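Quarterly update from the structural biology core.
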Amino acid sequence: MRNALVPKSAQQMVAATIRTVFVQPDAAAARETWRKVADGFRGRWPKLAHLLDEAESDVLAYLRFPQEHGRQIWSNTPQERLNKALKRRTDVVGIFPNDRAVSRLVGAVLAEQHDEWCVARLYFSAESLAKVLPERSPDPLPALSEAAA
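Predicted structure, tokenized:
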């Protein structure tokens, strides 16, 4: 909604109209409402309608998750917290000598954050993640070729 560039006088109406998508009871209704909202803006704000068409799959990606993940994926606070931690750590350095130095520092911060999330904060249970992740059968070991034998 931040990218919906419309005149200031119409911002509240546009935001309220777009928000109607997020109160739909199921994924099909949300997608249908999204398309109706985009079509409704097409005559007056064609750029906004095009933006909505392009962003549909990204904005409605949350619909693919189970209902019990709703509370965790509704907010982007963990992402903002991570971005602030990265900014705080990179600001201390100031100027990096090369790209590898940036990658090392950011990689270390991300690894540290990953460890903290694995141990200290369990956002999703293993059972709820199993609903999202496809089942993977273990890959069989490759057969020895005739030449190697």
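The two ends are 62 Å apart (CA to CA).
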